[in-house]
Write a structure and sequence with these properties.
The complex is a heterodimer of chains A (705) and B (108). By secondary structure, chain A is α+β, with helices and mostly antiparallel strands. Helices cover 19% and strands 21% of the residues of chain A. In chain A, a hairpin with a 4-residue loop joins strand 10 and strand 11. In chain A, helix 6 packs parallel to helix 7. The termini of chain A are far apart. Chain B has one domain: STAS domain (Transcription Regulator spoIIAA), CATH 3.30.750.24. In chain B, strands 1-2-3-4-5 form a five-stranded mixed β-sheet. The longest helix of chain B is centred in the middle third of the chain and has 16 residues. Chain B is globular, with a radius of gyration of 13 Å. The chains are: A alpha+beta (705), B alpha/beta (108).
């Protein structure tokens, strides 16, 4: 084949540096890109005075070439150069930047350090999870040249309406690393592919992956002071490279094919109708504070990329040492470029932003009322169909659930939903009023600003905190395995052990725990908004009371798939609930209008008497009825009634009358441990029903055939 | 890398011996450009290939596209299980018809 661009004049070198043929490059795009006959390198530094491109052959300790950029290779603050004749597959590259070292002013240039390209799409150095690195390496995380030619075969993001989502939160390695997962490539993207049929069968239609941007599992790695067990940066909330999928999560990471493997995962999930949401960490980086390593940003332009105090110290709103300066225009562009890249190149359906409130702080840390970054993301043309979900708080004391600057676009992890549902479940007094708000999609938080129920990601458990089985088995955290003397992790768990702390063989306690898990799931899946479940909660996954297993690459964190067998009935129940939700549009209404236009309110509350909820502090009984038209056929109604009795005694609930011509059918009853799912949906023969202590019943109204 | 050509059961067989990566892949591509005959199915005998890098796999995909345009079949013969595994998890595998060895090629 003739290469038609070979004759372009810009495909020919103009200079020679250190024996390499080069020419002045193009400043955009940043990073490295393929151009005719060569590679274009482009790197930004506003205060750096000189730049050298450093080239390594794969894995070599020392570079084979260092190419200083001539003066005329700099445009504005960007150094750019095309280098010809490089074997791109065998290449690793970095930069040296010269400039002042004056920490009070905020500059930390060091020409002795080799810096990683912040736009690196492929990073080597931690290619196989847990493989002990060479600690003497002068350049530990190495930028490589990627090839963006994956064959997507017509795939595109699924664009499922937010209100129809059911999100499953998972950690790539923890999900399949256990031998009980029985996958060919445990703990990898490929291993996750093997579990897609399971997820599809469960009925979820979105998977939210804990961080998959390149991170170093050895960051702050240490041995447990008592057990000697190696502790890792297991969760990965500390980014090394924002544009690169983690190599150690790929079975093919040692061949540098993590991009292809991750894309194959996304493509296969999409084929199964499952969206991919990435948990992204833009609030800080792996470079820590002034004691931390210089890997990239710190040596490229410290003052631009990080929030610094007037004395040049790192602000620490993230709780991890530094804070990315997200509302600096250059950093904002980097974040935007990054998300656009993931959306366009990896077909990502949505992003969940870790400690997102930080993204709304100005360079001096003050919260902004209209943060430019959040606005840019909300109105970006490439991200327009991506879900944007904020963890609407930070470690600096900003708590913005309900007030996160949303620009009509942002959803939120609803921490208030979690706390309220937990407290109602364990029988706290004074919860029914708030629960009524949470069930409807939290209109108290979102209605006044014109937002909708699907703004709220409803969850009772997530990676951060107890698993659901642990929530009903432990009153307090048991984090000794983390090696911090049980001081780490939250204490505001709102958990209840049902009568014994941790393991027990008392059948009454065990039965109550299972019922409480079922009650939690029943409330979650009959609430308006977007439900999210934590991996394995559907079959009783436990972390043995550890509510912060961020450092444990062990069976504590790994999903134990043998529980799927031993808790088969629980799994069947959750699966049936998810499918029930998917069948009932009444549960997925995405507006707060009270009038359904169907002679019944869209959502109404009841108690032991129909149409009369008891809102008093001592009330632990609440029922809700949700109504929607059956679209697109019209005419028919979809009505669901849920009664929740969290009192420690049985309670009679009078049901509201079913619409004319309709009859109530019983679909779920957590009070009946042996058969909580009533597959035949028998007709309710009485004007009400007796709910056992701490149990939930779900009815739906149907017209006689 | 050693490259040679033969024919078997109506297929034109290209024998590859050695590692296929960014260093050698140009050689393979040039050889195929030069030696490929129109209208005859192609079997790529990779029994002697212990490793194929990302660039190597990408060349296979390019070859696949070209044989599609030529409307002839393309088969991979004797692919090492490790390479096959890499191809599976990165999405390259399903594009190809595979045979364990030359004698299992069907008559064309």
């Amino acid at each position: 084949m003739n290469n038609v661009v070979v004759d372009r004049i810009d495909g020919l070198p103009t200079d020679e540096i250190g024996g390499f043929q080069v020419r002045p490059g193009k400043p955009l795009p940043f990073g490295v890109s393929h151009v005719s006959n060569g590679l274009n390198f482009s790197i930004y530094t506003s205060a750096g005075t000189a730049c050298t491109l450093v080239l390594f052959r794969r894995g070599d300790s020392n570079p084979f070439a260092e190419l200083p950029f001539p003066r005329n290779y700099r445009i504005g603050d960007v150094f750019c150069m095309v280098v010809f004749g490089l074997d791109y597959e065998d290449l690793e590259y970095g930069y040296r930047i010269d400039g002042p070292f004056d920490s009070v002013v905020g500059h930390r240039f060091d020409f002795n350090k080799i810096l990683m390209d912040p736009y690196a799409r492929l990073i080597s150095g931690r290619n196989v999870w847990g493989e002990e690195p060479n600690w003497e390496q002068i350049y530990p995380y190495r930028a490589k040249v990627s090839t963006d030619d994956f064959d997507w075969e017509g795939d595109r993001p699924l664009e499922i309406s937010p209100e129809d989502l059911v999100i499953y939160e998972a950690h790539v390695r923890a999900f399949t690393q256990s031998p009980s997962a029985e996958v060919k490539h445990p703990g990898t993207y490929a291993g996750l592919v093997d579990k897609i049929p399971y997820l599809k069968d469960l009925g979820v239609n979105a998977i939210e992956l804990m961080p998959i941007y390149e991170f170093d599992e050895f960051e702050n790695s240490r041995l447990h002071p008592e057990t000697g067990e190696r502790l890792y940066n297991f969760w990965g909330y500390s980014t090394v490279g924002f544009f690169a999928p983690k190599a150690g999560y790929a079975a093919t990471g040692r061949f540098g094919m993590q991009m292809d493997e991750f894309k194959q995962l996304v493509k296969t999930l999409h084929k199964a109708g499952i969206e991919v949401i990435l948990d992204v960490v833009f609030n800080h980086t792996a470079e820590g504070n002034d004691q931390g390593p210089t890997l990239s940003f710190k040596g490229l332009d410290n003052k631009i990329y990080y929030m610094l105090t007037p004395e040049g110290y790192y602000f620490n709103f993230s709780g991890t040492g530094n804070t990315l300066n997200c509302n600096n225009p250059v950093v904002r562009s980097l974040v935007l470029d990054c998300l656009r890249y993931w959306a366009a190149e990896f077909h990502i359906d949505g992003f969940r932003f870790d400690l997102a409130s930080i993204l709304g702080r100005d360079p001096w840390g003050a919260p902004l009322s209209n943060p430019p970054l959040l606005e840019s993301l909300a109105f970006d043309p490439i991200l327009s169909s991506c879900k944007l979900i904020a963890e609407a708080w930070d470690a600096g004391g900003l708590y913005q659930v309900g007030s996160f600057p949303a620009f009509g676009r942002w959803g939120e992890w609803n921490g208030k939903y979690r706390d309220c549902a937990r407290r109602f479940l364990k029988g706290d007094a004074g919860m029914v009023g708030e629960l009524a708000q949470r069930i409807q999609g939290s209109p108290d938080l979102y209605r006044h600003s014109g937002r909708s129920p699907a703004t709220s990601v409803n969850f009772i458990t997530c990676h951060d905190g107890f698993t659901l089985a642990d929530l009903v088995s432990f009153n307090g955290k048991h984090n000794d395995a983390n090696g911090e003397g049980n001081r780490d992790g939250g204490d505001d768990n709102h958990s209840w052990n049902c009568g014994a702390e941790g393991w027990t063989d008392d059948p009454v306690i065990l039965s109550l725990r299972k019922r409480q898990i079922m009650n939690a799931m029943a409330i979650l899946f009959t609430s308006r908004g977007i439900p999210m479940v934590l991996m394995g909660d559907e079959f009783g996954r436990s972390q043995h009371g550890n509510n912060n297993a961020y450092c444990l690459d062990s069976p504590v964190s790994w999903v134990d798939w043998s529980l799927l067998q031993s808790n088969r009935d629980l799994h069947q129940y959750v699966k049936a609930l998810i499918h029930f939700r998917n069948r009932h549009p009444a549960l997925r209404v995405n507006h707060f209008e009270e009038d359904s236009g169907l002679h019944l309110p869209s959502c109404s509350f009841h108690g032991q008497g129909a149409w009369s909820a008891d809102w008093s502090d001592e009330s632990r009984q609440l029922a809700w009825m949700m109504t929607a038209g059956l679209q697109p056929n019209g005419g028919g109604l979809d009505v669901v009634y849920v009664a929740a009795n969290m009192a420690h005694f049985a309670s009679w609930f009078e049901t509201p009358e079913a619409p004319e011509g309709y009859r109530w059918r019983i679909c779920f009853n957590t009070g009946d441990q042996n058969s909580p799912i009533l597959a035949s949906e028998p007709i309710l023969g009485s004007p009400g029903l007796m709910l056992g202590e701490r149990s939930v019943v779900i009815l739906s109204a149907s017209a006689p055939a | 890398m050693e490259l040679s050509k033969s024919s078997a059961k109506g297929w034109q067989v290209i024998h590859v011996v050695g590692q296929v990566d960014s260093k050698t892949v140009g050689e393979l591509r040039d050889y195929i450009d030069k030696e490929l005959e129109e209208g005859k199915p192609v079997a790529l005998d990779v029994q002697g290939v212990p490793f194929m890098s990302s660039a190597g796999l990408r060349t296979l995909l390019t070859l696949h596209r070209r044989t599609e345009v030529m409307a002839v079949s393309l088969a991979l013969v004797g692919i090492a299980s490790e390479i096959a595994d890499t191809m599976k998890v990165t999405g390259f595998y399903d594009y190809f018809t595979k045979y364990a060895n030359l004698s299992s090629l069907p008559e064309s």
